[in-house]
Amino acid sequence: MSKKFDVVVIGSGPAGYVAAIKAAQLGFSTACVERWVDESGAVKLGGTCLNVGCIPSKALLDSSHKFSMAQSELSQHGIQVSKPKVDVAAMLARKDGIVNQLTSGIAGLFKHNGVTSIAGSGKVLAGHRVEVTAPDGEVSVLDAEHVIIAAGSKPIEIPPAPTDGKLIVDSTGALEFDQVPKRLGVIGAGVIGLELGSVWGRLGAEVVVLEAMDTFLPMMDQAIAKESAKIFKKQGLDIRLGARVTGTEVKKNKVEVTFQTGDETHTEVFDKLIVAVGRRPVSDELLASDSGVTLDERGYIYVDEHCATEAPNVYAVGDVVRGPMLAHKGSEEGVMVVERIAGKPVQMNYDCIPSVIYTHPEIAAVGKTEQELKAEGANYKVGTFPFAACGRALASNDSEGLVKMIACADTDRVLGCHIVGPSAADLVQQVVIAMEFGSSAEDLALTVFAHPTVSEAVHEAALAVDGHAIHIANRKRR
């Protein structure tokens, strides 16, 4: 006899567990199916983000940044310390402790809200039913009024660099190095490659990043991308663009990487190699042939603007559907779907989703880039402000980077904001809120910002849109 629920969620990552909790809060009987289990066989909640992604990587980024500060920056503040040492084991133990605290926290929230957690792999059947294959192989079926697929994504593998879990690793393996590699290779100069390269580079590794594309961070505004590239070069990251990896070979506990730049072939030898060329949706073995749910040619589940699939009462959210693979995007899609199941006509504003690269300094953006607006033939205006002119940033010895604000030249409405600099992730959120309410650049310019704060750079960039910045010389307008 199958169990029956109002809502069954497949996957307990940020998209899935948020959807499950929201559904339970709205009074729906809810189950969440998760295939990850720990050594004891208990369900491991949180998905990639909490277990081997966003959270552990930020823990190591923060630890490595503090080590870097102790090495070179504290002396500039008049603080003298003896030569710091890296205890990788303690660093990893701290990271694991944070992960365990958060994943157990989700388990507590499930219990508090009455979400039933089920261990196993879920498969969507016809008639919005879910087949669950438990870790021991036992198969059961859940009857659901509504199904939410939140199966997430996994690292893309490439034939020239097959991972072995030891010398050639994906993003998960890069969080588990038991010592700092002397020479570290990273394939891919995207978000994951830059963050992981930064972690081990700060801890003492010589890092070489091989990027097949000729443009650095093509998804970012190119003024910010160019400024970021300069900063990373100064930090010691060796980023090689137009470098297409053609093969790898393990020799005497080292990895020899062959790559091409133009017509030339090169080789580099590394102690470890991280493959960080992106992620792909986990959609294989997720759908029965008669489920009614459709995949596109890249393996993403086809959904409409409200995340409904072509099968009645079946939805999909997060990394398994179109759009940026961002935890917060998935979480909000999960909330939207549950609210719609409850009969509320809510929708997502996909124009106001912030994106962040958690290097130091951080890189953050929301809205359109100048390149996108130029390609659209839009009439726009731009204001920029460097952190070097921000008193709080200088006082903190953290003054690299800039804020770039873009507004419509006709209506003054803010179209985008792009930042590389201190606390960029938090600063851009101010502009996200402004854009959500349809604010103009003048609205931000007329807003009172506390002094001294790094957020004043956002204020000044908004002023600069019309040539009214106070703390830099404005360009003369024709």
UniProtKB/TrEMBL annotation:
Signal sequence range: none
Residues annotated for FAD binding in this entry: K58, G122, D319, M325, L326, A327, H328
Disulfide links within the chain: C49-C54
PANTHER family documented for this protein: DIHYDROLIPOYL DEHYDROGENASE, DISULFIDE OXIDOREDUCTASE
Cofactor note: Binds 1 FAD per subunit.
Pfam families: Pyr_redox_2, Pyr_redox_dim
InterPro entries: Class-I_Pyr_Nuc-Dis_Oxidored, FAD/NAD-bd_sf, FAD/NAD-binding_dom, FAD/NAD-linked_Rdtase_dimer_sf, Lipoamide_DH, Pyr_nuc-diS_OxRdtase, Pyr_nucl-diS_OxRdtase_dimer, Pyr_OxRdtase_I_AS
Organism: Aequoribacter fuscus
Keywords: Cytoplasm, Disulfide bond, FAD, Flavoprotein, NAD, Nucleotide-binding, Oxidoreductase, Redox-active center
Other comment: The active site is a redox-active disulfide bond.
Protein name: Dihydrolipoyl dehydrogenase
Catalytic activity field: N(6)-[(R)-dihydrolipoyl]-L-lysyl-[protein] + NAD(+) = N(6)-[(R)-lipoyl]-L-lysyl-[protein] + NADH + H(+)
Database matches in NCBIfam families: lipoamide_DH
Location, primary (coarse class): cytoplasm
E.C. numbers: 1.8.1.4
Recorded GO MF terms: dihydrolipoyl dehydrogenase (NADH) activity; flavin adenine dinucleotide binding
One example of a Gene Ontology biological process annotation: 2-oxoglutarate metabolic process
Subcellular location field: Cytoplasm
Enzyme class: oxidoreductase
